[in-house]
Amino acid sequence: MSDRKTGMRGVLVIDNSALGMGKGGTRMSPTLTVREVARLARTMTWKWAAVDLFHGGAKAGILGDPTSPDKEGILRAFARALANEVPREYVFGLDMGLTEQDAAIFIDELGDRGAAVGLPRQLGGLPYDQLGVTGYGVAEATDAAAATLGLDIAGSRVVIQGFGAVGQAAAARLTQLGAIVVGISTVAGTVADPNGIDVGRLASLRAQSGDDCVLEYGNALPADAALAVDTDILVPAAREDVIDDTVALSTTAKLIVEGANLPTTPTAREVLHKRGIAIVPDFIANAGGIVAAAHSMDARYSPFTVDPADIFGMISTKLRANAVAVLEAADRDGLTPHEAAHQLARDRVRVAMRLRGQVPCTSNVEGVRAS
């Protein structure tokens, strides 16, 4: 979609709605592509199915600079362009480049409180990033996966690539669980210390200096050095496709937990599998955010706020169980963890599609996938 007056260019991808209406974040980036949004929408399909919650996969994106002074006008034009789809088929959420204030703009433009989640607390929203729900879930999945592999999280060395909302919350929770965080990076650089990083100090510096916190911490290395730090567990929590064949061949990690969406390339996953390095896939590990989103979706028109305690309990229960189930299924059936996770999610989507009459009940697996 586009708007000539504001220059807005955006896209909405609804990947599959067999389990429910489309739900996924909305991002804004100067390099946004339709393929990028489509890949993320498909990931959302598997993510909702994996946690067994009743929404479908979708994602929206705006091509543009999120720091532009014209941002509000672009957001309003985007909302107007989707007035037929929102909130009946899709609900705006927060992703890269958007803030709680932007979610408030969406509901104001459409005159519907149910048009977006991720609203400011003062409008009944749930502060995902402040609570650290996604990073908390990543840490819980890491702990459960490590135990399944015979690794004791207490004393295990962890590297976290990315120190945004997800990486920071994951680092804090992993430290509480007894892990030693030996490497953390932002786009500005990497902090590495084999004796352990002071995560609390780095978080305080981030509040003051943003990504430059690693420079303020001292002895910073280049940003990509994080992926080469000697570690037991690697948590990529930044962008897509950062773990390629080179990293897969050289990493010392015994376990990789995908905090970001799509951080490993397909060929890298094959390399890691051949090396016996376990992976907890993104839509299993970072699903804490959508558990929170599900609570927010349910409360969109309610006068009552969501209790964070309910969210954290559900995140821990679901993500721990799924991480263990995927690794055990992969080992039992001779699959990669991604294959096992996709099989779990596909089975749930396939059943929903059959019940709705969207595919013949006699379809084989490949036929249903192609549909």
Automatic annotation (TrEMBL):
Residues 125-357 form the Glutamate/phenylalanine/leucine/valine/L-tryptophan dehydrogenase C-terminal domain. Pfam families: ELFV_dehydrog, ELFV_dehydrog_N. The keyword Oxidoreductase applies. InterPro entries: Aminoacid_DH-like_N_sf, Glu/Leu/Phe/Val/Trp_DH, Glu/Leu/Phe/Val/Trp_DH_C, Glu/Leu/Phe/Val/Trp_DH_dimer, Glu/Leu/Phe/Val_DH_AS, Glu_DH, NAD(P)-bd_dom_sf. The keyword Oxidoreductase applies. Belongs to the Glu/Leu/Phe/Val dehydrogenases family. Keywords: Oxidoreductase. PROSITE patterns: GLFV_DEHYDROGENASE. This is Glutamate dehydrogenase. Coiled coil: none annotated.
